[in-house]
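Q: What residues go here?
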């Protein structure tokens, strides 16, 4: 028995099944996938102003959050392992500028900062408080 006469119909059926699967997947994604909303297009004659995120309410004074760094100069929070430039700017935006602020956090304030910054345990996992205590102590010796 020669298998070659069935190759062409089998290949066409396989190709048809592939295209039907692609079409069904596309339609399901359009119906149930994440919706994308069109961004408004700025008109060229309109003056564009930069969007500055609004500073959040500093909230609970137990966190020791500040409106600006003490003495006008913030500590280099990037010295804490786990804090990079982006995270440092987020902390500054939320009122954290100094090692002493992080060093003073207790379990309640850590939970509040985790919720505020959506970290889910990162502060404890990377031991920010103990690192900040050591860095604050070293800074006070100078």
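A:
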């Amino acid at each position: 028995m020669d298998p070659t006469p069935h190759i062409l119909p089998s290949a066409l059926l396989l190709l048809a099944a592939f295209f039907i699967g692609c079409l069904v997947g596309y339609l399901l994604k359009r119906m149930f996938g994440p919706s994308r909303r069109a961004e408004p297009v700025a008109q060229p004659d309109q003056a564009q102003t930069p969007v500055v995120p609004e500073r959040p309410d500093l909230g609970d004074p137990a966190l020791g959050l500040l409106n600006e760094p003490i003495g006008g100069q913030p500590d280099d929070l990037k010295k804490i392992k786990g804090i990079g430039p982006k995270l440092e700017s987020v902390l500054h935006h939320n009122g954290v500028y100094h090692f002493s602020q992080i060093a003073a956090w207790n379990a309640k304030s850590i939970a509040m900062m985790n919720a505020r910054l959506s970290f889910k345990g990162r502060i404890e996992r990377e031991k920010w408080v103990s690192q900040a205590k050591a860095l604050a102590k070293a800074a006070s010796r100078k």
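A: Context that may help when evaluating the design: The mean pLDDT is 82. The helical segments are 7-32, 85-93, 99-103, 107-117, 122-125, 128-141.
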